[in-house]
Amino acid sequence: MLADLGLSSLEDLFSTVPEALRLAQGLDLPDGLAEADVADVMAGLAQRNRTGSDLVCFAGAGAYDHDTPAATRALAGRSEFVTAYTPTNLK
User: Fold this and answer.
1) Could you tell me if 2 and 13 are in contact, meaning their C-beta atoms sit under 8 angstroms apart?
2) 15, pLDDT greater than 60
3) What's the rounded Cα separation, in Å, for the pair 83 and 79?
4) What 3-state class would DSSP assign to 5?
5) ∠ CA(32), CA(37), CA(43), 5° rounding?
6) Are 46 and 52 spatial neighbours (Cβ–Cβ below 8 Å)?
7) Does the CA dihedral 25-50-19-4 come out positive or negative?
8) Contacts of 64 by beta carbon, 8 Å cutoff, 6+ apart
9) What is the DSSP letter of 16?
10) pLDDT tens for each residue of 33-87
């Protein structure tokens, strides 16, 4: 993968990430931990981040915080609304 990207090392891959933001050492995880258990640990770490409910969104242009009814999501996901097919035999 590094060769395909034109890089010679992992250090080159992460060179754009400031040193202060890089992980200084490995995560404190026991050896042989199952993938599901690692996902649980990562979810626990992620919960320590600030959530959208305690932040203010200044995006605007319709991207502000708002509720979308479940019916809207259900209807928008139906195939007849998301395909480019239009019947040509309408009378």
Assistant:
1) yes
2) yes
3) 6
4) helix
5) 135
6) no
7) positive
8) 57
9) T
10) 999 999 999 988 888 887 766 677 677 676 666 677 888 878 877 777 766 665 5
Q: Could you say which DSSP state residue 52 is in?
A: G
Contact call for residues 22 and 14 (beta carbons, < 8 A): yes
Residue 12's identity, in one-letter code, is D
pTM of the complete model: 0.39
**Alpha carbons within 13 A on the beta-carbon side of 50:** 5
* Tokens linked to 62: 């319709």
Q: Pull the structure tokens for residue 25.
A: 């050492």
> DSSP state, 84?
-
Pairwise CA distance, residues 47 & 26, whole Å: 20
